[in-house]
Amino acid sequence: MEPFNFLRDVTAFNPNNLEMLLRLLAALVAGTIVGFERTYRGRPAGFRTHALVCMTSCLLMLVTVFQSQWVLEKSDYLIRLDPTRMAQGIMTGIGFLGAGVIMKEGPTVRGLTTAASIWITAAIGILAGIGFYFPLVVSVALTILVLSILRVIENLLPSEAYYNFDVRGERNNEFTEQIVRDLLKSCGFRIAHTSYRLDDKGCERRFSMVLRTSRRTGSACLSGKLEQIDAVHAFRITPISE
C-alpha cells in the first residue's frame, strides 16, 4: 500500500470495504444481543462490554482475512515472517493492562467496559499501523456509538438488578424470617440466595440474602420500611453491578 492514502482508502469504493462494514455491523449486533441478556440478568459484563469484545474479535480477524490488502505481495520472506504474529503479541500484552482496570469492591465488579474499550482501542491502533483506514474509521465510530448512545439505551431497557442484603435485629416476633420475606416481596424483591445466623449469644437474628428486582425504586422502598421497624438494629443494601 502507498503511504499517506488515508482519504482515498476511506472514500474510494472498494467491494472489500463493504464486506468489512457488514462484518463489523454483524459483530456489533451479535455482541449486543448476547449482552442484552446478561444486562437483563444484572451481570457485571453486560450490554456494552459484550458488544466491544465481539467487535474487537472481528477487527482482529479482518486483519488476517484481508491480509493481502496490506502485506506486500512481491516479497516471499514477508509471508514466512507472518506479520499477524505481531498483532497477537500486542493483544496479549493489552490483556494484562485491561485486567489492571478491573476492580472488585466487595460484591461489586467495576471496570469491565473500560477494559473492553482498552482492548478495542489496541485493535484500532493495529489497523492504523498497517494502514487499514476504512475499518479504522468504522470501528472508531461504532466504539463511540457503543460507549455513548448505547449507554442511554442500556439505562432505558428493562433489566434485573441484583443486591446483597444484610440485616440484623432483635430476636422477637417483630423481626422474623417471614416478616423479612413479606417486606421484600412488598418492595418487589425476589430472593436468589439466603442464609440465617444467630449472633450475640442467640439474642440477635441476622439474615444475609442475594436479592433481585426489576423495580428501580426497590432499594429505596426497602430501606424506608426497615427504618420504621424498631427491632431492626442495622441493615445494608449493596447493588451488584459493574
Automatic annotation (TrEMBL):
Listed A to Z, the keywords are: Cell membrane, Membrane, Transmembrane, Transmembrane helix
Carries keyword Transmembrane helix? yes
* Localization, UniProt: Cell membrane
Q: How does it sit in the membrane?
A: Multi-pass membrane protein
The family database entries (PANTHER family) matched by this protein are listed as: MAGNESIUM TRANSPORTER YHID-RELATED (PTHR33778:SF1), PROTEIN MGTC (PTHR33778)
Q: Name one Pfam family in it.
A: MgtC
Similarity comment: family membership: Belongs to the MgtC/SapB family.
Task: List residues of the MgtC/SapB/SrpB/YhiD N-terminal domain.
Answer: 24-155
**InterPro entries, per the entry:** MgtC/SapB/SrpB/YhiD_fam (IPR003416), MgtC_SapB_SrpB_YhiD_N (IPR049177)
- State the protein's name: Magnesium transporter MgtC
- Which stretches are transmembrane? 20-40, 52-72, 84-102, 109-127
Report one GO cellular component. Answer: plasma membrane
